[in-house]
């Protein structure tokens, strides 16, 4: 296979598969589910980007009495999800709707390379290197981006989709779904009225509640 | 396969109505061939994702969006379509259909054993004389040749067999049935019911009547309150062909079932004026086969039964099988539906519920009954929905990162009530199905072409439904945060029906009051194609009752030598 500029950045398909295998080990997903045989190689992440997505995920949903999102492989989940267009991330986005983006992060079809965009945006916000910030500083950097995205008029802000994928990755993982929240595939009965005690954890297996968010 | 397979009856399709036809005809002693165009999905062992957790799935149950965009662009819009259930829906790329310019129609299909009985919403409502008299009353469509009293005993029979959980309310417009114990309302729904009734005694919110078993029933297990029915249910706790009618038909020893058999044509003998058999293509290897029978039931699904009749045109019947009237394919319908209101319901912060009730609530029709009080429309609408607590997905809309944000998503979210309106669809001649001679499917069969649009009556009904929903939920103590009055694309309710309507007059209808072709006495069409109007209730229970009724009639006619 001819060398491409993308490959010279350090990305090799087998590296990603190895990463995927580790990811699968961490979160119990069949490796077959996360291989990216048809991935546009320009979408393949660098190791720095994988680290960034792990740190970003962890900052959004940190370790508390349960592990955080970065701890359970959500960083790689988001990369895989982006490669397959989850959360509408392969839809074209017009620059008019997206004053926060720059053409260099858009594919020819108009969709956004979210990871590249996020890396540049966070580095810029962090005066050059988001990854080198300490945990508190990273959280502040992300909080700033988050408040911008959720301000009035921020509906089409790219961060919203990334954050949505981080949530999906975490609350559909074993830890997020059954430790941070509760999970029961076979409730066996329906109790229409149950007292809600302070500190109660929701059921991630309440499919209707999840569907209608 | 023998080229000279002979049966007493052939049933085309194994879905909700086909399963009933096979059961009734085999139990009457007929040797029956049931043909299913899709793959076999055996009960229990065929439900491959039933017990999977999100973290067991390659895409966490959300599914591969890129694949869906490419191969399931219509099916992915179905509420029940997920990574767990995608195998119970057709691949759109492999199963194309055409639409007329300007038509936006989502045709949701399940080509597999059991058809859409595996993925249906299970809501089971009787129609009333407000529905069977609707066409006569306002002049749209053609008068139904049956009334409630004709079908009532068949509703009894069907409900008793499939098991329908519901609460008796004594409403003329939504007749009570043979109910299993009802699923209970949750605290918010109970309060909403009482508050609405307090102001509008004619508006009754009751729990959805659903074909999910609240107790063991006829050898099938009780519902486990999972509410993941469309994956298939090994407990047999909701009605499907696999759980209910197929075992009954097979127990007779009279059933032959062939899957992967795409029926291409129904054979017609002009000399006798009867249908004589069907021809099909094995979709796995492209080979052709045929069988003969004295009696044929079409249960391919409303649009596919019409498609088959159109594609079975002969020199003797050049416009399609049983289409001397020329109305075959016309007057198709689907319920216009929309999310009329979502309201936050404060005051219930100290209660929750446990388990996943496999049904919502319904507010029975209350417009245009004894008083014509519809604004711009002459028929009815009703609501389905329920009260629920939002899950973790609410976090997608909320600002915040870090420990506090994570903690905020741990408890159940605030209670909300959702009301989705379903309105009557006026039967119109211009909404019709035709064969598209210019485009074929991968088997070489001309595609179905759908020409459909909702009219001003449907828009008017949904506008009134939106206003009413906001008024009711506000009165009930809610704060309405969203509501719509425009219908989704045709097909969105997955209640497409009509195309081979029943009627009194052979000159203006395809079927008589027994779901029997006016033109061909040994041909019966007992799926949704036979419907002359749409009502605003979910139609499947009515398809089942009409199928059982037609099968009984057909057996009588066979035994008497009339067909």
Explain this structure.
Chain A: It comes from Aurantiacibacter zhengii. Chain A: Keywords: Membrane, Transmembrane, Transmembrane helix. Chain A: This is Gluconate 2-dehydrogenase subunit 3 family protein. The complex is a heterodimer of chains A (213) and B (563). Chain A has helices at 5-8, 13-27, 47-60, 74-83, 114-125, 135-149, 158-171, 174-180, 207-212; one strand at 191-195. By secondary structure, chain A is an all-alpha fold. Chain A has one domain (42-183, 196-212). In chain A, α4 (74-83) crosses α7. The longest helix of chain A has 15 residues, at 13-27. Chain A is globular, with a radius of gyration of 18 Å. The N and C termini of chain A lie far apart (46 Å). The relative contact order of chain A is 0.11. Residues 1-38 of chain A have low confidence and may be disordered. With 563 residues, chain B is of the alpha/beta class. Chain B has 2 domains: 1-97 and 110-163 and 239-335 and 428-434 and 495-563, FAD/NAD(P)-binding domain, CATH 3.50.50.60; 169-228 and 336-423 and 454-489. In chain B, 22% of the residues lie in helices and 19% in strands. Chain B has 11 helices and 19 strands. Chain B has helices at 16-27, 65-71, 129-132, 134-138, 148-162, 187-199, 241-251, 302-311, 403-408, 456-475, 540-559; strands at 5-12, 32-35, 98-99, 164-165, 179-180, 205-207, 255-258, 261-269, 274-282, 288-298, 337-344, 351-354, 361-363, 381-389, 415-423, 432-440, 446-451, 479-482, 523-525. In chain B, strands 1, 2, 7, 8, 9, 10 and 19 form a 7-stranded mixed β-sheet that branches. In chain B, strands 6-13-14-15-11-18 form a 6-stranded antiparallel β-sheet, covered by helices on one side. In chain B, α1 packs parallel to α11 (540-559). Chain B is globular, with a radius of gyration of 23 Å. The two termini of chain B are 28 Å apart. The chains are: A mainly alpha (213), B alpha/beta (563). Chains A and B meet through α4, α6, α7, α8 and β1 of A and α2, β12, β14 and α9 of B. β1 (191-195) of chain A pairs antiparallel with β12 of chain B, so a sheet runs across the interface.
